[in-house]
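For consistency, the fold was encoded as C-alpha coordinates, as this record shows:
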Amino acid sequence: MTATNQVSLAGKKLIILGERDGVPAQTIEQALADLGVEVVYSTTQCFV
Protein backbone atom coordinates (compact mmCIF):
# COMPACT_ATOMS: atom_id res chain seq x y z
CA MET A 1 0.00 0.00 0.00
CA THR A 2 1.40 3.41 -0.95
CA ALA A 3 0.27 6.73 0.46
CA THR A 4 0.21 9.78 -1.76
CA ASN A 5 0.07 13.06 0.11
CA GLN A 6 0.25 15.91 -2.35
CA VAL A 7 -0.34 19.54 -1.50
CA SER A 8 -1.60 21.85 -4.20
CA LEU A 9 -0.44 25.46 -3.92
CA ALA A 10 -2.39 26.63 -6.97
CA GLY A 11 -4.43 29.72 -6.14
CA LYS A 12 -2.79 30.22 -2.73
CA LYS A 13 -1.32 33.50 -1.50
CA LEU A 14 2.19 33.24 -0.07
CA ILE A 15 4.49 35.32 2.09
CA ILE A 16 8.10 34.41 1.42
CA LEU A 17 10.86 35.04 3.95
CA GLY A 18 14.30 34.35 2.56
CA GLU A 19 17.59 34.36 4.43
CA ARG A 20 20.68 36.21 3.26
CA ASP A 21 23.15 33.44 4.10
CA GLY A 22 20.72 30.66 3.18
CA VAL A 23 18.11 30.71 0.43
CA PRO A 24 17.14 34.23 -0.72
CA ALA A 25 13.47 35.05 -1.29
CA GLN A 26 14.00 35.61 -5.02
CA THR A 27 15.25 32.02 -5.41
CA ILE A 28 12.19 30.67 -3.58
CA GLU A 29 9.91 32.76 -5.82
CA GLN A 30 11.58 31.35 -8.93
CA ALA A 31 11.15 27.79 -7.64
CA LEU A 32 7.41 28.38 -7.04
CA ALA A 33 6.76 30.34 -10.25
CA ASP A 34 5.12 27.46 -12.16
CA LEU A 35 2.85 26.33 -9.31
CA GLY A 36 0.22 29.04 -9.78
CA VAL A 37 0.79 30.83 -6.49
CA GLU A 38 0.40 34.54 -5.80
CA VAL A 39 3.30 36.03 -3.83
CA VAL A 40 1.87 38.90 -1.78
CA TYR A 41 5.07 39.74 0.09
CA SER A 42 8.66 38.67 -0.39
CA THR A 43 11.78 39.72 1.48
CA THR A 44 15.29 38.53 2.20
CA GLN A 45 16.54 39.21 5.71
CA CYS A 46 19.65 38.58 7.75
CA PHE A 47 18.72 36.56 10.83
CA VAL A 48 21.44 36.80 13.46
Observations:
- Helices lie at 25-32.
- The mean pLDDT is 89.
- The longest strand covers residues 38-45.
